[in-house]
Amino acid sequence: MLLITTYHYVRPRAAIPKAIFPVTLEEVCSQLALIGRHCEFVSLTDVENNHLPSDCLSCLVTFDDGLQEQFYAHELLKGRGIPSAIFVPTMYLETGKAIGVHKLHAVIEALDLSLIKKRIALFIQERNIRPKFYDDACIKGPALYKNDPADIASIKFFVNFSLTAPQRDALVSALFDYAFVESVWVTDNYITPAQIQDTAATGSVSAHGHTHEPLALLSRTAARNDMLRSKKLLEQLTNRQINTISYPYGRGDALADWVYIEAEACGFVCGLTTHRGINRGMLPTLNMRRYDCNELPGGSRPLFDADRLQDQLCALEEPLAGL
Question: What phi and psi values does residue 141 have, to the nearest 5 degrees?
Answer without folding.
Answer: -60, -55
